Amino acid sequence: VGEWDLYYDWNCTGTYYGPATIVFQPDGSYYAYEDGGEGYGTWTVSAKRIDFIYSAYPNAHYTGTTSSTHAEGTMSTDDGSRGCWYADKR
């Protein structure tokens, strides 16, 4: 829960973009914004696994591991894009 800085790299090239600000709400929803764009979705954490999905097509789906201050993993979309991401809590 709280505000995190999210960095992402479509195709896992080693060049990360961002940060996008992502705010995880206690009710399992989140919102994110970057450069005037914004999005919404849902998230869950089980043990040290995080899973969050963007609500609009192409429904970016982020999965990975998390601690209290850092998370990282991979992402994919319904249209076949893939990538890597990490986030740090503010």
Q: Explain this structure to me?
A:
The chain has strands at 2-10, 17-24, 29-34, 37-46, 49-54, 61-66, 70-76, 82-89. The protein has 90 residues and is mainly beta. An eight-stranded antiparallel β-barrel has the order 1-2-3-4-5-6-7-8. The protein is globular and about 30 Å long. The chain starts with a strand and ends with a strand. The model has no long low-confidence stretch (mean pLDDT 96).
Spatially, the strands of the biggest sheet line up as 1-2-3-4-5-6-7-8
SS summary, helix count: 0
**Cα-to-Cα separation, first versus last residue:** 11 Å
N-to-C SSE series? Answer: EEEEEEEE
Specify the overall morphology.
globular
Structural class: mainly beta
Approximate helicity band: under 10%
DSSP strand content: over 45%
**Radius of gyration over all CA atoms, rounded:** 12 Å
Could you tell me the mean pLDDT?
A: 96
Report the biggest beta sheet as strand number plus sense, adding barrel if it closes. Answer: 8 strands, antiparallel, barrel
Instruction: Give the number of DSSP strands.
Output: 8
Low-confidence blocks of residues: none
